[in-house]
Structures are given as structure tokens and as C-alpha cells.
Hints:
Layout: E1 10-12, E2 18-20, H1 24-28, H2 44-56, H3 62-71, H4 73-80, H5 90-100, H6 103-117, E3 124-133, E4 145-152, E5 157-164, H7 170-178, E6 186-189, H8 197-205, E7 209-214, H9 219-228, E8 246-254, E9 257-266, E10 280-292, E11 295-308, H10 317-326, H11 329-341, H12 354-371, H13 377-385, H14 388-396
Parallel strand pairs: 3-6, 6-7
Antiparallel strand pairs: 1-2, 3-4, 4-5, 7-11, 8-9, 9-10, 10-11
Amino acid sequence: xxxxxxxxxxDIGETGVVYAVGSLxxxxxxxxxxxxxxxxxxxxxxxxxxxxLAKLAGKxxxxxxxxxAGNHADELVGILKLTHSWMPSHSTIRRVFHSVxxxxxxxxxxxxxxxxxQDEGEDDVLAMDGKALRGTRIAGQERSDHVLSVxxxxxxxxxxxxxxxxxxxxIVAAPQALAQVSLVGKIVTGDAMHTQKxxxxxxxxxxxxxxxxVKENQGHLYEDIQRLFAPDKPKPxxxxxxxxxxxxxxxxxxxxxxxxxxxxxxxxxNDYLDWPGLGQVYRLEREFSWLRQGKVYKTSCExxxxxxxxxxxxAPPDKVLGHRRNHxxxxxGLHYRRDVTFCEDATRMTIGSxxxxxxxxxxxxxxxxxxxGYHNAAKARRFFEGHLADAFQLLITSNCLS
Length: 402
């Protein structure tokens, strides 16, 4: 009689590694290896695990990953249960990105894994923004690859990434990216480029809400909201014009800068404006003061108008202000980390879809770091550099035990 100590949600790899079925390690084994069998010294799963462990340990460029793997060969042999101690070269690492994996297949893997790992919560914000992959630019060409990401702010997970021809085409790519995620109960935010009726309709029909800034690209809409919040100047002999404005204010101070944010919301234009699912409009004023030795030496003020499908009952002014501010976490939590912490733009990936696949790898690693309980990605990488077994656990386990 045969016995197994495996749990129902576990499986065992060809080298003897036990992993959760829904883990990244398990999903790697389902990827198609486009190499021919002749001369193949490493299976695709082993190569990907080495890349991810190196990324978690603070190594970015292919040559750094190869050198790191060679220096940690004995430890990697024990963790991966390999029968040999030689490690892949930097050229092998590069081929993983530009010729070994299929972009669409890997993109589907990333989407399914990230959406599986997402913990649902009230008022989850999905921030949508594009980014140029400068490491893909070839000398003599005018542009680099561009992607549009849908980023779950609370979980720090990229739920969808859509390739874009250029920044202006983000308007076309946005509906395609949103179609890949569940919008039920989500609040989708973006910049003024995405303030489009078709996109708003798609979100409302999908069971979600939108929050968009409005600029001159929507001329009539911008003027109507601006006129609503304009200073009240009643005619002589007439009283003040009745309005329903609600106000909230928040202040912050840090790094020598004082910031005051004041928002006013109104539902008076809901029936007037021809916009899908409109719940309220807002006027957001940001006042900045820079201090030096306790004295203000520079000030500035910005005013933004916007719309949202969130009702005033569900989202009072302070919540609208918070959701709008949360949108910018895609810059600090995703774009900044990929550019600065993971040196994405400084890593040359110019062949085929290598740059877009590298961006997906970084999206996954950022999600793994958040799942490990770290808010500082650089600090997490310093820890995992000396604790490879802990890093490997992130690859073979999953939040969803199936």
C-alpha cells in the first residue's frame, strides 16, 4: 500500500520539490518551453525560480543574476533539489526573457496568480496608469515600449498589464485592460486622459465606480463644473444662490513642505451633465508652502475639478479626497519601485517582448514582497539576500489553498 504525506492542495515537482498547487512554482511548470530539447541544460521552472530568487535578493541585470547564482550554487542546489551545481550564464538568463517564454502565456499566468492572491476589501481602489519601458528603446528609434497597468492599491498587485503603441493610445487600451479584471465593488481611478464616457460606462455596468479628474480635454464638462464652484456673486436685491456643497480638509507636513488639501463636492449637476452613472462632482484645491528655518520661502496652489460615480451617501468628501490621493500610490508603489529599486529602465531588454516580460516579473516580485509583510521593497530585498529559504517559500506557497 502506498502512502503520501502530501496535503490535498500540494503537489511534487520532477526534482522532488513540494509546492502548493496555486503557487508560482506550480504555475511555472505549466508554461511552454519554446526551446528544443537538444542542448537544454536547465528546465524552464528552474531558470524562472533562479531569476525570481535573484530579484528578491536584490540582483537586477542578467549578468548580476548569473554571477549571484554562481556564488550561491551550493545553496540553490539544496533548495531546488538539483543534481548538478553549475548555474546558467547571463546569456541564458536573457534568452528566458526574449525567446524562451511566450508573452501572452506568461501574461495570463501573471493575471491569474495576482487576481488569486488579491484579498477583497471594501472600497478597493484600482489605479490605472501607463509607463514607458525605457530599457526597451533602441538607438535611432523615437520611442520605447509602453504598457498600461491596473494596480490594486491596497494589495500592491498589478491585476492587468496591457501593451500600448504609445501614450496617446492608452485611451484605447484602457477598456481592454479593465475587461481583464473584476470591477465589482472596485473604485477605478486614472488621470484626465481616461475621463471618457465609454470607459465610465464599462465600469458602471461592471459593478464598479470611477473617479476621474477633469481637464480641458473635456471642454464642456470642465466649464460646467468650474462654473458651479465659481465664487457666488448674486445680483443686487437677490439673496445667495442655494447650493449643496460639502467640504473636507486635510493637512500634511513633511520634508520641509506643508500641504493643505480642501475638497468641495456637489450633486447638483447629476441630472444636468450627460455622463454615465454620475454621482457627484468635486473641486480639489491643493496649497503648498515650503519652509526653511521655520519661514515660508515659496508657495503654490493647484485646483483640480473631477467627477465620480460614487454617491454622496457612500462617499462623503473626506472619502473622495482619500480615494483621489490613493491613486498616486501607483507612482510610489509601482512605477518608482520598478525604476529605482529594480533598475528596470537601466536594464537593456530590446529583443522582442523581453522588456514587457521583465515588467511582469517585477510586478510579481512586488506582490510577493507585500505578501511577506514588507512595506519597504529595498529593505525586503536586503533581508532575502541572506535568507534564500524564506524567499523560496514565497514561490512555493500561496494565499489561496486549492
